[in-house]
Amino acid sequence: MGLTSIKTDGDKIEIVNQLLLPHTTEFIEISTIDQAHDAIKSMKIRGAPAIASLAALAFASDLSRALKAPADFVSSPGTVRDYVEPILAHLYTARPTAVNLGAATRRLTATLDASIAAGKTGHAICADLIAEAHRVADEDVGRNKKMSQWGGDWLVNDVKQSGGTGNGLNVMTVCNTGSLATSGYGTALGLITYLHETGSLATAYYTQTTPYHQGSRLTALELQTLEIPSVMICDTMVGSLFQHHNIHAVVVGADRIAKNGDTANKIGTYNAAVIAARHQIPFIVVAPISTVDLAVADGSGIPIEQRPAIEACLVRGALYPSEGETKQAVVMITPPGLEGIYNPSFDVTPAELITAIVTEKGVATKRPGELVFDLSSVV
Ligand SMILES: CSC[C@@H](O)[C@@H](O)C(=O)COP(=O)(O)O
Fold first, then answer.
1. Closest ligand 1 atom, CA of 48?
2. Between the CA of residue 262 and those of 48, 246, 300, 304, what are the distances in Å?
3. Which residues are listed under the site Transition state stabilizer (predicted)?
């Protein structure tokens, strides 16, 4: 049984505070739009699909709660629009690179437009919006299982065709793309889980993924919980791993995939792709269709989030009691007053370095001799 990032009970939403994992499992309640926005921005919850799910659920819960109180905003379609649009616009600003968040808010705006155009009452429009918001979160697990199976079967076959091992595959991943980063099962980590469940995995390798340590804190915990044989490496050890071990594939998630296949993902993904190409190791991106942004022609159009410099200067530890309060231990790893810190949260891997892009619809590869993808078959 995998871990959970979001729990719901009627209008009540709780998320596991990922800033405290793996030391402490603390669920925090998200009861307002501002709390959802803050949780996403401060990375208490993170991972492109999970933040879209939380935004959609917080929106549904806000609307449902507002309807239970005397609610003037439902008096007409226009007043519903005036209430809903600023909320969606605000949620959209929480993190810029992961396009799933924008896809969710755009999808809810489309529902709003369609319900208004159909001549529905304010109450009926709100009911449509709440139902659609729940669908955004609920459909994530099913599509993750589909893409994991597509990608897993494709990889096993690809390795077989190139005369690879019969003793199971060694697969490396970056960041955390499991049930903590999604509504469940995961994308790249879902593919690894699928290989394990079907007896095709030897070992999952994963990078620590500094500075937030999604690998050493979150992927480590997920793989431990799932009892999947795994080995952690520091981010600087990817080249050494490829030189000294037989790695069959690198499998990563994505925050935004441009029309030509250029892919933004966690910082360090591009490094891994360059070294994988040097070693002719297949490099596979696994992500839902909502991560593909056909409005962006190539990677140069993807906005890259810069995180606060302080996040690159510290390591978070366990909670401890202090003068009647609970605090989180923090270890500074830089000299006091250090200036000049570069901390982009994501990098872009050019399509040229990517072997396959997998969505819930199937697997896309490049035509022989082509450097970019035609993604039309998988979106
Ligand atoms: C299924 S999660 C896919 C991506 O969102 C993941 O690889 C990633 O880059 C997460 O970044 P994060 O900054 O932790 O939200």
1. 5
2. 16, 26, 9, 13
3. 175
